[in-house]
From TrEMBL:
This is HTH-type transcriptional regulator MntR. It holds the Pfam family Fe_dep_repress. Belongs to the DtxR/MntR family. It is found in: Cytoplasm. Gene3D superfamilies: Iron dependent repressor, metal binding and dimerisation domain, Winged helix-like DNA-binding domain superfamily/Winged helix DNA-binding domain. It comes from Pontibacillus salicampi. Residues 1-63 form the HTH dtxR-type domain. SUPFAM superfamilies: Iron-dependent repressor protein, dimerization domain (SSF47979), Winged helix' DNA-binding domain (SSF46785).
Amino acid sequence: MPTPSMEDYIEQIYMLIEDKGYARVSDIAENLEVHPSSVTKMVQKLDKDQYLNYEKYRGLILTAKGKKIGKRLVYRHELLEQFLQTIGVNKENIYNDVEGIEHHLSWNSIDRIGDLVQFFEENPQCVQQLRAVQQKNEEQEEQIEE
């Protein structure tokens, strides 16, 4: 199983390949805000662990194993963003919150969050009830602060 750092790289590589058709070390470095030398080291490790095939100066290709994990990691990230949006987390906090929690949840927890998101999609009145509770709590907090 990949480490959280390896997951970040696999996820980023998967997204780049999906969007552009390829992933270059420079693109990965830019998106992850790390030095290209760090990317090269990690790519070599991912190659060794058979998540991708890397040839110096030629680029990289995800293996079937890497694609499978990459797809699952992107799903996890998008699902957590959707969940946080659904429960009313401020948009400006969502990305950092997802980055902070995604590596610390089991896949079982991710699947249960997926069930909850599906439940909310199928029962929008429950989201409205949640919003009403949130509004009430915010009003109470404002009264306490005054």
